[in-house]
Specification:
The structure holds three protein chains of three kinds. By secondary structure, chain A is an alpha+beta fold. Chain A contains seven helices and four strands, in the order H-H-H-H-E-H-H-E-E-E-H. Chain C is globular and about 85 Å long. The chains are: A alpha+beta, B alpha+beta, C alpha/beta.
């Protein structure tokens, strides 16, 4: 993948103008950069961020690898985050996870060969009223059953957007 | 939107916004029910409803809610409208054209007089 | 704006959106324009109304009729019947446990009528994207009062007098925190709103942010005035995109109306707020970790003291309160500390928002006065068990809290009473469990969570919780010894005393509280190698009841590991050596012939 570095520079400089404080923008910038590249941060981009903010690259990676929402590897078009907390657990979350693994034939943290799906876990999404819950990119799906999960995957595979 | 500079500015916005919100409250002085059965609609109840809403707006009345109901069974005098004020007998008016609707709002709601020439029925059914 | 005949408040909280609110709203709009009602019917998307298990839901005013479990087809019927003809559509009204139609008016449902709403006073009633609706319900009047009539000291005094305690979990007196921050020595000061709500099962902050974002902004501006700060940050989890969107809208509206920026409401006071978005780290809810994250570093906690009131963001004095705490501030200022103190108990005044989840009929959010008993909360408001089996325990306070067994359900809910039981108020998540839930499994579950979320900075938390988890795994797989129970307790108490931050210090609570109240269950796992709740896979087996099995072969066909054998029309058997206890066979058996047993 070719990385357009001038674009990254632009993002960083844009963020600099938006913030009132110096230096607190690293997490924000990483969010923006990640959005720009779909859903991961390529090493070249991380280097630019370090240069532009005038901080060591190690500092960028220190932060980058700490937070689960950032990835250094390319992720699928759809990142599926499965809530693995107790409210979802007692209402059948384990089955949802198993169905997804079975359906996508990948384990947690992996991406399907066609680059469509990445499977991840997430902490509580705060939608316990309709548990079990998953989040596909920015869309929530609740009250899930293995059947519903299969339907959602099928729909996304068929090229439909999130609902 | 100019910036709010004083409590008076804030009060002004509140007054306006409260009016919009009050309509949702169930605790109002009364309500006007427009019969919107098929017969009523066919007789022009939609225009009546709109006229009532506009008239209330013009008179700056906010404590009256406007609701719709099914057919009251008085099809021959449609469009019909029931005015039910707190602690008063309900009044049903018939042949409420938009023009008559305006009169009802002005006389009955504002001045508290029954519009006798449109009166169809008084009291509970 | 023209006067409207009907206003439809449709809940656009996260839970309702995930169960299809959008398509219901579109259907409503389509039908309304089909009948040319768009001038007289108004649709407002509100924040979470709290009754998440009934979603998608809406209330039609002025009558206040509450419709639930909506579909696009339901929307069509309701437009045709209710809006057009004024007839309530009974099919979609809320029905009680026996199917009777209970009051159709939202305010009269027990779920709503038992609540006292201070924090969530506007959530579900106003359009969160419209600042004027907030103003209509006295929004920004507390700010006006503070700026016009009160000195900073008076504001702090009022908050102190109210007895408000931090709703994030620990229950630190809010007024005292404000005072300490005001006294902080740094020149610049900051106000931070902790919206990194991460406790499993707690979602009241999300609901307030989505449903009434302005109340948080107003409170932060007041706090800024009180402590002498001109800059605020709201730290929100990235997992809450809708809350972020609504906050962004609210901030730009507040700037436009002059509530944020320089010379607020024509005074000398200036204040602005920025959003900082987290990136998926539970520990960032801890205040020193949150500060590190705002500064763009790894979100790791540090030793306290110094407390953030002395050294917070950029080493400046910083006030950190959570969303729910802030939402209490405008009403306290407007109605006074005495009013606030008249609600709740002496040491825990006011209300608390609880998120009911798990095996309970009415899942969702409820706001109740402090001091209500667990029984009232779970049975009268929550509607009791959803499975027909009695409630065994309720877990409060997430991974930092404990399990409270049913025999203590007469306990009043306040900070001190819960602490005495070894649980904590925490952020207000309540997860209800019945006899099918194994307490050892629950404890293990939370430990997995903590091990995963431990930031790794201090040894007791990083290594200690891992060892505790290892012991629990041993116990649930049938390898446990009595010695292990002793080890578990000793280890838990050590971590409690030595970990660096709140997350680590409270991490053993789920284990310690279950060990205390359900020691018999632990002992059964250890001594008899039995899991009475049939939850621990290694301690359960599946058996086919020969007298019930008709030999239909459905189970054998669905078994993923071919562990079931038998001839057609003859009783089948399960080879428990091969069986992976996935439960697929039980699901397909139409004769209830397959049972889970332990051992």
């Amino acid at each position: 993948m070719k990385v357009d570095l001038s674009e990254v520079r632009k993002i960083v400089n844009q963020a600099k103008t938006e913030s009132l404080q110096e230096g607190d923008m690293l997490v924000n910038i990483l969010h923006c950069v990640q959005d720009h590249f779909g859903n991961f941060i390529p090493p070249e981009a991380a280097e630019i961020v370090a240069q532009e903010l005038d901080i060591p690259l190690s500092k960028v990676y220190e932060v980058l690898t700490f937070y689960t929402m950032f990835s250094t590897k390319p992720r699928g078009k759809y990142v599926i985050r499965v809530c693995v907390n107790l409210p979802c657990h007692v209402t059948g979350g384990r089955q949802i996870m198993e169905t997804l693994k079975e359906e996508l034939k990948i384990d947690v943290g992996e991406t399907t060969a066609d680059g469509m799906f990445t499977l991840e876990t997430t902490s509580c999404l705060g939608l316990c009223g309709v548990s079990p819950v998953i989040m596909v990119n920015d869309t929530y799906y609740g009250d899930l059953t293995p059947k519903k999960v299969r339907e959602i995957i099928e729909e996304l595979r068929a090229g439909g957007d999130e609902k | 939107m100019s910036k709010i500079k004083s409590l008076e500015d804030l009060m002004k916005i509140k007054e306006k916004a409260v009016k919009d919100l009050q309509l949702r409250d169930t605790n109002t002085r009364g309500k006007i029910t427009v019969a919107m059965g098929t017969c009523g609609i066919a007789a022009g109840a939609k225009d009546t409803l709109k006229a009532i809403v506009d008239a209330l707006n013009d008179f700056n009345i906010t404590d009256i809610s406007v609701v719709q109901s099914g057919c009251m069974g008085l099809c021959e005098v449609e469009p019909t409208v029931e005015v039910r004020l707190l602690d008063c007998e309900p009044i049903v008016y018939g042949h409420v054209t938009p023009e008559n609707a305006r009169r009802i709002v002005k006389l009955h709601i504002v001045e508290n007089q029954i519009v006798s020439d449109l009166l169809v029925r008084k009291g509970e059914i | 704006m023209a006067l409207t005949a009907n206003t439809i408040l449709i809940c656009a909280g996260g839970a309702c959106i995930s169960s299809g609110e959008e398509s219901v709203k579109q259907a409503l709009e389509r039908e309304i324009s089909k009948y040319a009602l768009q001038d007289v019917v108004r649709i407002v998307e509100t924040g979470c109304m709290g009754a998440c298990s009934l979603g998608p839901l809406m209330v039609i005013y002025p009558e206040g009729v509450f419709y639930q479990k909506l579909t696009p087809k339901a929307a069509q019927e309701i437009v045709e019947e209710h809006l057009l003809k004024g007839r309530v559509v009974e099919e979609y009204l809320y029905k009680g446990p026996t199917g009777e139609i209970v009051p159709q008016v939202a305010e009269k449902l027990p779920f709503f009528s038992r609540q006292v709403r201070i924090v969530t006073r506007n959530v579900g009633f106003i359009d969160p994207k419209n600042i004027e609706e907030y103003i209509a319900r006295d929004g920004y009047f507390a700010l006006a009062k503070v700026l016009r009539e009160m000195t900073s000291e008076e504001v702090i005094e009022e908050v102190k007098k109210s007895g408000l305690r931090g709703r994030g979990g620990a229950g630190f007196p809010t007024g005292l925190k404000w005072e300490l921050t005001r006294k902080g020595t740094s020149q610049k000061k900051f106000v931070v709103c902790n919206a990194d709500e991460g406790d499993p099962g707690a979602f009241m902050d999300r609901s307030v942010l989505e449903g009434d974002p302005h109340t948080v902004l107003e409170a932060m501006i007041i706090a800024g005035y009180a402590i002498g700060a001109n800059q605020g940050y709201i730290y929100v989890r990235a997992e809450y995109p809708l809350a972020i969107e609504r906050l962004n809208t609210a901030i730009s509206q507040a700037r436009e109306y002059g509530f944020l920026g320089s010379n607020i409401m024509g005074t000398e006071f200036s204040f602005d707020i920025e959003i900082r978005i987290g990136a998926g780290a539970f520990v960032c809810g801890e205040e020193t970790a949150l500060i590190a994250s705002i500064e763009g570093k790894r979100g790791q906690p540090r030793v306290k003291p110094p407390y953030p009131a002395e050294r917070g963001v950029w080493d400046c004095s910083t006030l950190i309160n959570n969303v729910e705490t802030f939402a209490n501030i405008p009403p306290i200022i407007l109605k006074g500390a005495d009013w606030f103190k008249s609600i709740g108990t002496e040491n825990s005044p006011g209300t608390k928002v609880f998120a009911l989840a798990g095996k309970i009929v009415n899942t969702g959010l409820v706001e109740v006065p402090m001091g209500i008993t667990l029984k009232e909360l779970l049975y009268e408001i929550g509607g009791g068990s959803s499975t027909g089996k009695p409630i065994k325990a309720v877990q409060t306070g997430g991974p930092s809290g404990g399990c409270i067994p049913a025999q203590y359900f007469d306990t009043p809910v306040d900070y001190d009473s819960l602490q005495k039981l070894g649980a904590i108020m925490g952020s207000g998540g309540m997860i209800v469990m019945d006899e099918d839930d194994c307490m050892v499994d629950v404890a293990k579950f939370f430990l997995e969570f903590t091990v995963d979320e431990s930031c790794g900075k201090c040894t007791p938390c990083r290594e200690g919780t891992r060892q505790m988890l290892r012991i629990l795994e041993k116990i649930t797989s049938g390898e446990g010894t009595e010695e292990d129970l002793y080890e578990l307790k000793a280890l838990g108490e050590t971590i409690k005393d030595t970990a660096l931050c709140g997350l680590g210090q409270t991490a053993p609570n789920p284990v310690l509280s279950t060990l205390e109240y359900y020691r018999d269950e632990y002992e059964m796992h250890v001594k008899e190698k039995r899991c009475p709740a049939l939850k621990c896979k290694d301690l359960t087996r599946y058996v086919i009841d020969e007298s019930k099995c008709v030999g239909c072969t459905a189970c054998a066909r669905v078994c993923p590991v071919n562990a079931i054998s038998g001839e057609v029309r003859k009783a089948h058997v399960i080879d428990n050596e091969k069986c992976v206890r996935c439960g697929s066979c039980i699901e397909v058996c139409r004769f209830n012939a397959i049972n889970k047993v332990s051992p």
